[in-house]
Every structure is written in C-alpha cells, then in structure tokens.
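Progress narrative, Year 2. Work on tRNA 5-methylaminomethyl-2-thiouridylate methyltransferase from Hucho hucho advanced from sequence curation to structure prediction during this period.
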Amino acid sequence: MSQDALRHTVFPLSGLTKDYVKKIAAEAGFQHVLKKESMGFCFIGKRKFEDFILEYLEPKPVNFVSIEDGKIMGEHKD
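Result:
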C-alpha cells in the first residue's frame, strides 16, 4: 500500500462488516487486493504443522480400535 493511500485510511474498521469493507475497496479500485481468503494454516510459515501444534498442545496418544472385535490395532501418537 502506498503512503498516499495509507494517509487516507481510517482505522479501526470494527464497526463495518468484512463484506462491506470489500465492497468499499472494490468501488475504490482495489480489486487487485480482493482475493479469495485462505482458511488454511498459512500463518505458521514454513514449519511442519505437527511441530507448530506441539508448541501449544501436549501430545495425547489414542488407540486405533477395530470396530469388529474391539482389538487395539495401533496407536496414533498425537
């Protein structure tokens, strides 16, 4: 974003819905920044998801159990 555009920016936008802000941006000619939103874990960067999540949660092993006879078939480590 250019300094000129930033000069004309009003914060916070908390009283406006995301859809309304996108509509305003489109009408102002900012279509190039209106892209599909990511619902993934892009914020973790180039780390493995397992390494990231283990920073916040303790591993909790669980068993894989056969629905036919209740026999434990294996264990999932977290």
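The CA atoms of residues 28 and 54 lie 43 Å apart. The chain has three helices and two strands.
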